[in-house]
Each structure stands twice: as C-alpha cells, then as structure tokens.
Amino acid sequence: MLFGEKVRLRAIERDDIPRFVKWLNDPEVKQYLTMFWPLSYAEEERWFEKHLDDQTSRVFAIETEDGIHIGNIGLHNIDWKNRKATLGIFIGEKDYWNRGYGTDAVKTLLCFAFEELNLNRVQLSVFDFNTRAIRCYEKCGFEYTGDRWQKDISLGDRLGLSIFTDERFREVRKFFRQSRSGLEVLYCDMRITREQYHARRESRA
C-alpha cells in the first residue's frame, strides 16, 4: 500500500468491480474519459482478469484515510527498457471532486514511479478543455509538451455535429474540428521527468 497525505493507494480487488461498473457508466464521470459503450459487469471482470497478468500496466484503488474507495489511478504502457509510463486517473465518487484527493493521488503515484520503480519519465494526455485536470497535473509538476488533434470515437458518438450548433458547447467548440475521418478533439500532452520530480522535492525541502 502507498500512503499520501490524504489518500492511500492499494491494489484493486475483485470486490471493487461493482464500483468500477457504477462509475464508468455515469455520464458525469466518463465525460473526460475515452469510453463510449455502456460497460457491463462481465466486461469489467474480463478486464480485471487480464490486468492481473499484465506486466505493462498497474492500477491502484484510491482510498481516503477512512478507507473509502473513491477512484482509480494507474501506470500504463510501462516501458521497462526506456523507463517510462503513462499515467491515468479518475475520481468516481463525485462528492470527492475538487477536494485535493486527485492531486494527492497523483503525487503519491509519482513518488512510487520515480523512487521505487526508477522510471525516468511519466507522461499523460488529457482533453484540452479539461482545465480542472490540467491544473491538477501542473500542481504535481507536469509540464506541457504540445497539443495534438485526434479522432475520438467516444465523444463523436456522444456529441456528433451538435458540438458545432448546440449553444451548450459554445465554450468548448474551439477544441473540436470535423475532418474526413470524423470528429477530432484537441489533446494536451504533458510529462514530468525524474530530474524535474527531484528538483521540485529539493526546492520544497
């Protein structure tokens, strides 16, 4: 188990699957995730079984100090040769949004990634309009490395061309474009290196 200031990270268990299914079928939770199909218990159970044997990905349950499971965080596409990985996180319990739990979970996992796994770089991609997540990552030391357009089936299926006509989407419309291949969304790529991580720790010592 990994301990932060507000959270602890533990291995996920089979008993957690019902919560995964509930969270990942909640439109508010998955609006910033690259998921689009309704998720069944059987599908999540199959993912769990594969995860147990996957040496390039590790997902942790995020718990409060009181032991309440509020979300998941993980390292994916772990490249052991080049010492790099991709970080992903979501807080499924909405009562715990905007309260610093996600930031503490990211900081806790970065400590593990650089201090224990000896990784050289952790990177991530986030929707460019997800400003809350971007602020969280910046607090943890991630730096912006660039933007890129990418076809997004999940948002394309949910929004379609209404993104360009519905006034509800006026503020985020600039982050989308229509191409020959379909609806594309602007992603923000970020990363933090081991040197940057240690420099931040030393500056705060």
Task: List the topology elements.
Layout: E1 2-3, E2 7-11, H1 17-24, H2 27-30, H3 41-52, E3 58-64, E4 69-79, E5 84-91, H4 101-116, E6 121-127, H5 131-139, E7 143-151, H6 153-159, E8 176-179, E9 182-193, H7 194-203
Parallel strand pairs: 5-6
Antiparallel strand pairs: 1-2, 2-3, 3-4, 4-5, 6-9, 7-9, 8-9
What gap, in angstroms, lies between the N and C termini? 24 Å
Radius of gyration: 17 Å
Fraction of residues in β-strands = 25-35%
Q: Average pLDDT value?
A: 89
Quaternary form? single chain
Q: Portion of residues in helices? A: 25-40%
Give the uncertain stretches in residue-range form: none
User: Count the helices. How many?
Assistant: 7
Biggest β-sheet strands, sense, barrel: 9 strands, mixed
The total count of strands amounts to: 9
Q: How would you sum up the global shape?
A: globular
Structural class: alpha+beta
* Run of helices and strands: EEHHHEEEHEHEHEEH
Task: Provide key terms for this protein.
single chain; 205 residues; alpha+beta; nine-stranded mixed β-sheet; 7 helices
What's the short story on this structure?
By secondary structure, the chain is α+β, with helices and mostly antiparallel strands. It contains seven helices and nine strands.
